[in-house]
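Retry 2 of 3 after timeout on previous attempt. Resubmitting structure tokens to design endpoint.
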């Protein structure tokens, strides 16, 4: 059964990690939010809702999770007691429903 897991990506490497995870037929997801700050003008920038982390869906019986840890751009899967931490599919589904097709959080 496909479950969602938390992984940590290397600094400034989320795009590299996403590209390489997609090449392995895995489904990465990282919700983003738009933040604005005022300098001389208003600047809008996308920022990750969970900085440094993203979610990836895979079937543990079909994918060797060690290959995910060795993916370029990925630091590591998050572990608890020597097992990857799985996230509730309902939580990820609800989060995705609140995002547009590009993963940006809707207002």
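Retry 2 succeeded. Sequence:
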């Amino acid at each position: 059964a496909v479950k969602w897991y938390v992984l940590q990506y290397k600094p400034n490497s989320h795009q590299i990690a996403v590209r390489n995870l997609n090449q392995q037929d895995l489904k990465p997801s990282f919700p983003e939010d738009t933040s604005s700050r005022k300098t001389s003008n208003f600047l809008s920038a996308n920022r990750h809702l969970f900085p440094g982390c993203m979610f990836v869906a895979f079937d543990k019986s079909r994918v060797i999770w060690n290959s995910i840890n060795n993916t370029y751009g990925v630091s590591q899967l998050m572990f608890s007691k020597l097992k990857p931490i799985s996230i509730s599919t309902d939580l990820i589904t609800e989060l995705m429903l609140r995002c547009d097709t590009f993963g940006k959080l809707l207002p």
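Attempt log closed. The chain has a mean pLDDT of 82.
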